[in-house]
Design brief:
The chain has one domain: Beta-galactosidase, Chain A, domain 5, CATH 2.70.98.10. It is built from 3 helices and 27 strands. Strands 5, 11, 12, 14, 15, 18, 21 and 22 form an 8-stranded antiparallel beta sheet that branches. The protein has an 8-stranded antiparallel beta sheet with strand order 6-7-8-9-24-20-19-13, with no helix packed on it. A 4-stranded antiparallel beta sheet has the order 1-2-3-4, with no helix packed on it. It is globular, with a radius of gyration of 20 Å.
Length: 357
């Protein structure tokens, strides 16, 4: 266990070997939450309630940033050295500012992406008395030409928070499409390249699968992407453990992330993960393929990064105990310094949230 000290920002190492191989990890805390951030990629690897609850909703791969690239690069990009899911999650992050006292605790990280000729500055903030983490990212292009870019917040939940038949995922999704995928040893249950309305997806046996629920029977591996409701300014995605009454979620600006891809890696063991990947594009495919498929369901499948310009995105994540009786989140509203989560039953969970998106 990492010892707690008075400072809210801890730099964690595991001896000289770790220091030599990768930058130290960091822990950002307030009075209610504890977030571990990896020194490589700035990945959010663990999120805990500070009341002693030991369950982190994040999967073993955590929440990492896929930038500039989401999925497999093209042959030419691969030959030039571009890795799967882009450079950002593999690069060391540099701490350029931190605030360790007062009502707001923050950490500002910078990452350089030499292949994409971009730089990313990411500010992570917590406010005392809030079960919310605010993330502001500024991406700056070093190129003298406009170009499409790929950006996905690769958020994943995993065991023990992810549990067969006991975890549900909700979002304000409309039109969706199943992505072809080679599952290997684990079969897929969905019918490839079929469109559907969230949450009922077509299956190979001509049935339907409710993608909200982690299946309780067999193991599956599938991918499906959904359009966030174009009428909304702010979109959301939540994951609720029905037995533990733990609720984890994100709120993000739909103009920044109009798509959300569900990576349903239901292996039945500790490797299991459910991706809740909100992004600029529907699927984890190359830049070339992403541009070629635009638009989908009337929504663009890529965004432009202008020459020598800076582009900003914002989102928040939250983690809290859900009231008894919560089973299906119908809405999440950020307004008036409050984050209001509305269940289909009519129950509401209201969390302080002082910062707007």
């Amino acid at each position: 266990m990492i010892p707690r000290i008075a400072a809210v920002l801890l730099f964690v190492t595991a001896g000289a070997t770790q220091q030599a191989s990768r930058p130290p990890d960091m822990i950002l805390t307030n009075d209610l939450l504890e977030l571990t951030i990896l020194g490589t990629g700035g990945t959010f690897s663990k999120l805990l309630l500070r009341d002693g609850e030991p369950v982190s909703p994040l999967a073993s791969i955590g929440h990492f940033l896929a930038l500039d690239g989401f999925g497999a690069p093209s042959e030419q990009e691969r030959a030039a050295g571009m890795p799967f899911h882009g450079e950002a999650s593999k690069q060391a992050v540099k701490v350029i500012a931190s605030q360790n006292s007062g009502p707001v605790r923050s950490l500002t990280l910078q990452t350089l992406l030499p292949l994409a000729q971009e730089s990313l500055t990411r500010k992570v903030e917590m406010v005392e008395g809030e079960q919310v983490v605010y993330v502001t990212s500024d991406l700056e292009s070093g190129m003298a030409v406009d170009r499409p870019f790929s950006w996905a917040e690769h958020a994943t939940i995993g065991p023990p928070f992810l549990e067969k038949g006991k975890t549900v995922v909700d979002m304000p999704a409309l039109n969706c499409r199943v992505r072809p995928f080679k599952p290997g040893a684990i079969p897929g249950r969905l019918a490839y390249e079929r469109d559907f309305q969230w949450p009922l997806a077509p299956t190979k046996d001509n049935g339907q699968a409710d993608l909200r629920l982690v299946p309780a029977d067999n193991n599956y591996l599938d991918l499906a992407s959904c359009q966030m409701d174009p009428k909304r300014k702010l979109a959301f995605v939540t994951a609720l453990h029905l037995d533990k009454h733990l609720l984890f979620g994100y709120v993000f600006r739909r103009q920044d992330y109009p798509w959300l891809m569900s990576w349903m890696n239901y292996t039945g063991d500790s490797r299991a993960a459910r991706g809740m990947e909100f992004s600029t594009q529907p699927f984890d495919i190359s830049h070339r393929e992403t541009v070629a498929m635009s638009p989908l369901f009337g929504t663009p499948t890529f965004r432009w990064l202008p020459a020598k310009a800076r582009l900003q995105t914002r989102f928040l994540l939250f983690y809290a105990r859900a009231p008894e009786g919560f089973t299906r989140v119908d809405d999440v509203v950020l307004e008036g310094g409050k984050l209001t989560i509305v269940d289909r039953s009519g129950l509401r969970l209201v969390l302080p949230a002082s910062r707007e998106l």
